[in-house]
Amino acid sequence: MSQPLSIEVFFDFICPWCLIGKRQLGRALARLRATRPDVAVTLQWRGVQLLPDLPVAGVPFAEFYLRRLGSEQAVRLRQAQVREAAAAAGEDIDFAHILRMPNTADAHRLLAQAAAIGSAQQVEALLECLFAAYFHNGEDLGDPATLLVAAESCGFLAAELVDSLHGDGRPFFGEAAGMAGGGVPCFVFDRQLTVSGAQSTEVLLGAMHAALARREQPA
């Protein structure tokens, strides 16, 4: 069998476009499996901390976006844009539930350590759980208790992951640092072909086929 198609996704938990991109990627992968069942895929999630300077306890969500966008009307328009895109991808994001913009350093450390010791299925479940905790339930991803409860629900032992939680707001600099060009989501296929942003299923599927076609070109 040929070498698996490598897909790396650079993301942050607080980015709604990353959740939307994850849904589009899932649809693209399903279509690839349906048409090319011979192609194996390895999928890796690379954490990128978008706001490394946030205090360890985070900041109030509403205040953060008001300062960032300048007016309540601008905030409403931006959130409406995101909700519309999310709905098209099959997601329901309710910003009213989100009370804090968290520091995500420990969430990324937790996922990285989970990926080192767990199965691909466990890591996928944990990623889904953390996205849901934030965007559906409004939980604080900067809270160690929230992170460990999520991990335990996915079959990990808290003792296996607790040392990944530094609790001091220290920035997360994983191997993804600098590779996403400052923007997420960012999809890299076979470490050669890069697609940035929450692109459509068709764009992501096209990138997969393009990456596979490159392998078939004469050296």
Overview of this protein structure:
By secondary structure, the chain is α+β, with helices and mostly antiparallel strands. The chain has 2 domains: 166 residues, Glutaredoxin (3-Layer(aba) Sandwich); 43 residues, no CATH class. Helix content is 48%, strand content 12%. It is built from 8 helices and 6 strands. A 4-stranded mixed beta sheet has the order 2-1-5-6. Helix 1 links the parallel strand 1 and strand 2. Helix 1 packs across helix 8, helix 4 runs antiparallel to helix 5 and helix 4 packs parallel to helix 6. It is globular. The two termini are 19 Å apart. The model has no long low-confidence stretch (mean pLDDT 93).
Topology, pairings included?
Blueprint: E1 5-11, H1 16-35, E2 41-47, E3 59-60, H2 61-69, H3 72-88, E4 100-101, H4 105-117, H5 120-135, H6 144-153, H7 158-161, E5 186-189, E6 193-196, H8 201-216
Parallel strand pairs: 1-2
Antiparallel strand pairs: 1-5, 3-4, 5-6
Low-confidence segments, given as residue ranges, are: none
CATH architecture of the largest domain: 3-Layer(aba) Sandwich
What is the approximate shape? globular
CATH top level class name of the largest domain: Alpha Beta
CATH topology of the largest domain: Glutaredoxin
Mean pLDDT: 93
Question: Helix coverage percent of residues?
Answer: 40-55%
Provide the spatial order of strands within the biggest beta sheet: 2-1-5-6
H/E element sequence: EHEEHHEHHHHEEH
Major pleated sheet: 4 strands, mixed
The CATH H-level superfamily of the largest domain is: Glutaredoxin
Q: How many strands?
A: 6
Supply the number of structural domains: 2
Terminal residue distance: 19 Å
Radius of gyration: 18 Å
User: In percent terms, what proportion of residues is strand?
Assistant: 5-15%
Look at the helices and sheets and give the structural class.
alpha+beta
The number of distinct helices, counting runs of at least 4 residues, comes to 8
Pfam family, one: DSBA
Organism: Geopseudomonas aromaticivorans
Protein name: DsbA family oxidoreductase
Domain DSBA-like thioredoxin: 7-207
